[in-house]
Amino acid sequence: MSNAAILVAAGRGLRAGGGVPKQWRPLAGRRVADWTLARFLDHPRIDRVVLVLAPEDRDAWAEFADRPGLILSEGGETRSASVRNGLIALDNTDCTKVLIHDIARPCVSDTLISSVLDALDDAPGAAPALPVTDALWTGNEGAVTGVQDRNGVFAAQTPQGFAYAAIRDAHAAAHAGEAADDVEVARAAGLRVVIVPGEPANLKITEPGDFSRAAKELQGEMDVRTGNGFDVHRFGPGDRVMLCGVAVPHERGLQGHSDADVGMHALTDAIYGALAEGDIGRHFPPSDPQWKGAESHIFLRHAGKLAAARGYALGNADVTLICERPKVGPHAEAMQAALEGILGVGPGRISVKATTSERLGFTGREEGIAALATVTLVPA
Ligand code: MG
Predict the structure, then answer these.
(1) Of 112, 170, 294, 297, which is the most exposed, with the fewest CB atoms less than 10 Å away?
(2) Residue 114 CB: number of other CB atoms within 10 A?
(3) Distance 329 CA to ligand 1 centre (A)
(4) Mind listing the pLDDT tens digit for each residue in 44-90?
(5) Residue 307 CA, ligand 1 centroid: distance in Å
(6) How far apart are the first and last CA of the chain?
(7) Rounded to whole angstroms, what are the CA distances from 247 to 301, 312, 339?
(8) Matching CATH number, 2-219, of 3.40.50.300, 3.90.550.10, 2.130.10.10, 3.40.50.720
(9) Residue 362 region, left (φ>0) first, then alpha (ψ -120 to 50), else beta?
(10) Ligand 1: distance of its center to the CA of 254 in Å?
């Protein structure tokens, strides 16, 4: 006797935006599918998980191939066909209870999973739902045409749980038709499905705005990242220095392989650091001649895009330039605006300030400029 979960991840749902199926989009530092998968793989009462994948998601097949407790199954033409394949994948196991869950509901709680399993002790089917509390209208062409009685009306959620053999047979019998969900398949086969109290947080990601709602729900487990960066460049011949994207007139310039924007380099390294992705030198090797004299916004933009690809947005950044001259104060606002523009963030998130080292050390002797930066990355 064992419990299994089937996660249906073969859909191509693009309505949530981003150009890739929603289960592969980043959410609070991981992908939607990773959150949902962890919910079930880590649950003490779930013995195995079947992940139903589309044949074209080749990267996912390779990535999940050897995960303990995970069985991969190929999706079908429709959601029902995918569920059927998932059920067949459990055929040679000792599975007695199976939960069928939408991959796009990453906020499902351990408690809810347990409640559905418990309810299956007394019924062949159990599924969470929320009573509808809003008034229900019918409408046509933008106008209200009637009011619907909401008594006894529920909004259905997943995981929907069943006695394994019963739902496998029900799905096999329903082969010709296409049901809205597995509860409908079960009821068509005469199975009793009891309602377990659902959770408002157990939302299904459908529209673009659902990502921020889901991220807030996952905040308790939110992976906030901090990084720091430090850089130094030496003075040499020139008539200006590039500092945080602004050319500041000076009787000397800064030397370096790129445009020697010391502040932008520190900030870029801080973002790489927060992501545990090394530093600028790793992504743009100084041995590669194509980066000679490169404008540093290329590096910063790359770090920002890497953070976004990992599901992070910039919480805030603080850059400190250390030099006796040139005076930074008059340019600080323009520097902040330049960095905000490159990273695509609104005002008030990036600070640029300066200090001297009281004429001590190499910055005090005006041999070069040092910069340090701290950033916080938060789930996007
Ligand atoms: Mg540098």
Answers:
(1) 294
(2) 14
(3) 21
(4) 999 999 999 999 888 888 888 888 889 999 998 889 999 999 999 99
(5) 20
(6) 41
(7) 18, 30, 13
(8) 3.90.550.10
(9) alpha
(10) 10
Encoded amino acid at 215, one letter = A
Token pair of 27 as six digits: 């959410």
- Ligand 1 center to 288 CA (angstroms): 15
Residues 242, 260: Cα–Cα separation, whole Å:
7
- Which of the four pLDDT bands, split at 50, 70 and 90, describes residue 336? very high
Q: What is the whole-number distance in angstroms between the Cα of residue 241 and the centre of ligand 1? A: 13
**Which helix (H) or strand (E) is 118 found in, with range?**
helix 110-119
Neighbours of ion ligand 1 (CB under 5 A): 231, 265
Domain with CATH 3.30.1330.50 in the chain: 225-379
Q: Whose structure tokens read 């096999």?
A: 172
What confidence tier does 220 reach under pLDDT thresholds 50, 70, 90?
low
Ligand 1: centre distance to CA 352 (Å): 17
Give the global pTM. Answer: 0.66
Q: Which of 81-85, 159-163, 169-173, 291-295 has the lowest mean pLDDT?
A: 291-295
- Kindly give the pairing relationship between strand 154-156 and strand 350-355: unpaired
CA distances from 280 to 232, 274, 317 (A): 13, 13, 17
Give the distance (Å) from ligand 1 centre to CA of residue 380: 28
Could you give the dihedral angle defined by the CA atoms of residues 179, 183, 185 and 190, in that order, rounded to the nearest 10 degrees? -150
- 133 CA → ligand 1 middle, Å: 58
3 state DSSP class of 353: strand
Q: What is the CA radius of gyration of the chain?
A: 28
Contact criterion met (CB below 8 Å) for 270 and 367: no
Quick one: fold of 225-379? Answer: 60s Ribosomal Protein L30; Chain: A; (3.30.1330)
Closest by CA position to 15, among listed 140, 75, 104? 104
Neighbours of 91 (CB within 10 A): 9
> Phi and psi (nearest 5°) for 113?
-60, -45
Q: Which amino acid is at 185?
A: V
